[in-house]
Here is the input.
Amino acid sequence: MSEPHLHLADTQCFVYYLLFAESVHL
Here is the structure.
C-alpha cells in the first residue's frame, strides 16, 4: 500500500476479492 499506484493485475485481483467476499457475505 506504500505505492500510490496499483498495477492492473493487482487491481483486478482486488476487485475479484471484493466480489468474492460480497458473494460469500450474501
Summary: The chain is about 70% helix and 0% strand. The two ends are 28 Å apart (CA to CA).
